[in-house]
Write a structure and sequence with these properties.
Elements (H helix, E strand, L loop, with lengths): L1 H18 L1 E2 L5 E10 H21 L10 H15 L7 H6 L1 H16 L12 E9 H14 L6 H17 L11 H9 L4 H7 L14
Antiparallel strand pairs: 1-2, 2-3
Helix pairs in contact: 1-6, 3-7, 5-7, 6-7
Length: 216
């Protein structure tokens, strides 16, 4: 059974490598086919808009640098893999450690969904904006998802959405109700007041793309 999982992972890794394109910054990027929930995507846009307004107001014009959406998402995903000791593991090492990795999935689900009415999960809407990400990050998503959420359809998107929500819960002190796509959740998201602390927390996480050098 595990041989089939390894074969599937290796096939997906090869396909991703073929799809990757070199950017003008000499970084391999790939259209992942992963989509964020509409509600979450909108929250990311609001958060970054507020963060960049904060940076612009508190930095000299010569040192101010916008935080880009692609960099922000890459860094949040990278921080999760790095903080949970997944980034530096080979595929063989991850398979040997699969019990711990599957427990990470249970922990994510508990953090984001525990206590919410199950019916609210039916309202989550797939977005139309895909994840354009660093090839290294996409490869780690490919390797991780069959182990963290085995036999779950759409597990790559599930993992990416959960990681982003976990960031906002942990670093912005949001409540999990804000991620529910109903009138109450939408109102909480639109009216949430981000503070300086919530923006500064971003510059404390592990980074794949270093956008700290002008902003801290």
């Amino acid at each position: 059974m595990m041989d089939d999982v390894i074969k599937e992972i290796e096939e997906h890794l090869e396909k991703a490598k073929k799809r990757a394109k070199l950017t003008n910054k000499d970084v391999l990027k790939v259209q992942s086919g992963i989509y964020f929930e509409n509600h979450l995507n909108h929250l990311i846009i609001i958060y970054l808009g507020n963060m960049n307004d904060y940076l612009k107001a508190n930095k000299e014009a010569k040192t101010f640098k916008n935080v880009l959406k692609t960099d922000f998402i890459d860094n949040v995903l990278y921080d999760y893999f790095k903080s949970n000791k997944l980034w530096d593991l080979t595929l063989d090492e991850m398979i040997q450690d699969r019990e711990r990795i599957q427990n990470l999935g249970d922990t994510l689900l508990d953090k984001v969904y525990k206590g919410l009415p199950l019916r609210t999960l039916l309202r989550q809407q797939k977005g139309t904006v895909g994840l354009y990400t660093d090839l290294e990050i996409f490869n780690k998503i490919i390797e991780t998802t069959p182990l963290i959420f085995p036999k779950i359809s759409g597990n790559k998107a599930l993992l990416a959405n959960l990681i982003m929500k976990d960031y906002f819960l942990k670093n912005c002190e949001m409540s999990k109700e804000a991620f529910v796509a109903n009138s109450k959740g939408i109102a909480e998201m639109l009216n949430y007041k981000f503070t300086d602390k919530h923006f500064q927390n971003y510059f404390k996480i592990n980074k794949l793309t270093n956008d700290n050098f002008k902003n801290i």
